[in-house]
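User: what does the whole thing look like in 3D?
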Amino acid sequence: MGTPSKRERLGLQLQLAISRLLSPIWVPALAAVMGGPLGWRIEGRAELRRRYAELRRSRSGPLLLCANHLTMLDSFVIGWALGSPAFYLRDFGALPWNTPERQNFASTWWKRGLAYLLKCVPLERGADRVQVARVLDKVVHLLRRGQTVLIFPEGGRSRSGRVELESAAYGVGRIVRALPGCQVLCVYLRGAGQQSWSDAPRRKERFRGRIRAIEPKSDQRGLRGSVEVARQIVATLVEMEREHFHDRQ
Amino acid sequence: MEAGEIQERVLKILTPYVKDAEALAKAGPETNILEDLKVNSARLVDVVLAFEDDFDIEIADEDVDAVNTVGDCVALIGRKL
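Assistant: Here's the predicted 3D structure for the full assembly of 330 residues, as structure tokens:
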């Protein structure tokens, strides 16, 4: 994989610095909105946070988060599920970067500003492959520098409402293979009322989450190897989904 | 292998992924796979893997970034053969 240009690296560094500087305002504010007016709750949140903090402490290499995807606000809920505002203010690198679809927030200047502040590297779905590769290079760069990044390996919200193995986007495999020793933390989070995909979870939603750390590998070379790694990650999410529904019965 | 023969095989491989059959019938080296043939971007990887199988070649991740048109595919495969 390539390396971001000097200008792009400086851009990311500046974005991180501004985001961190303002984090004492926006991190607690976001958590307060989710837990307050939106009334969201996460079952077993303390245990999820304890395990994530432990993993973050004990990691020996890059840590990539890969999750199922049902709403446009999943990255906020996942961030909130895995750490308290105090934890993120202490370890800002643990608060994951995101790669949202550019169209979802490109409409107004304040949405673009918010995305910048919230550690987002926008991605244009269906864009020229070279553009997509540049975003992947930025993600690899951030992971190498000890930042965590959240990726939705299905490439978009699950249209069937379930994790789809066939939707595995190979880019995530490419990222993992570019980073020797990269651990992948698979995150499965779903609200009790989430039957399918939507723009946002309902008010007073009750989420249940589970996490599993894996180190996907492939003996295959080239593109085929990246595809295999991506499928291992999505297959883990499929298994976690099965466990989720089994537990609910 | 001649470029014309490679292109013929490339178009055959693309056929099940193409949503605009009319565009496929008129496809040439300049035809854009995603925009003109309306191949789903997520399926482009499957197309490239099919190239690997059909031509018995190995394609690197980075090579896929340069694949935009039918002509790009033909050039890429020609280099690998």
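In plain terms: The beta strands of chain A are 41-43, 63-67, 97-98, 149-151, 183-191, 206-214. Residues 222-248 of chain A form the longest helix (27 residues).
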